[in-house]
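Reviewer 2 asked us to include a model.

Predict the structure of this chain.
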Amino acid sequence: MASTPSTAPTGTDRAAGGVQSVERAFQLLEALADSGGIATLSELSTTSGLPMPTIHRLIRTLVQQGYVRQDTARRYTLGPRLIRLGETAGRLLGSWARPYLAELMEATGETANLAVLEGGEVVYVGQVQSRRSMRMFTEVGRRVQPHCTGVGKALLAQLPEDEARAVLGTQPLQSHTAFTVTDPAQLFEQLAVARERGYVVDDQEQEIGVRCIAVAVPGAPTPTALSVSGPEARIRALEAQAGDTSLVPVMSQIATRLGQVLAP
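Predicted model (structure tokens):
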């Protein structure tokens, strides 16, 4: 008589269950991030769709490991151990993007940059500098305000207006040159135009004599922007080119391919 197959979980089944637990843990972390980094258990249950017993078990483990914290109001927040992971991933982002930045620099002859938002500031995480004279003030790791840079405005344009306003804060927008846009209403008009046409311009707003064109990187796991910057006259000459070799179509095509690589 043939033996009856065992119904006990196999090693493969247990492995699959383990993977599911990892997926659900990250699902919880992402739900917490989507809630602004702080939420109650019931809010996490609503946003994640996970059953409450599962959330209790996973949250307890994440708290023990330092990836989640519980505050005095019994709400849960993203924990400090995530900071190191984020910083390391941010540094690697520039390495992954370097071939695309190099391609953009070769296509335009000008400095190519990659930036993300972090703590209300723009952080340059990747760059390939132009071989031509007059290099830019930007460098990898530099932090700047978002309202006065091309990449910053391209990043803000990816956010809902209330989130963009929260990033800018309540203090008056700082002027860096005579061309810096410091009126929030005018800035948000620029962001609306940027969403419609697919790119944004920094016309000497951060540095006199420097023009920057920036586009969003679609599909990236966090708002990410790609830019070309250089002397005003050279960038304007690139913008004036006609056809598929003009600046914005080239940037958009490279940004789309980079986004496909970075997409989770």
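The chain has nine helices and nine strands. The longest helix spans residues 81-108. We have added this to the supplementary material.
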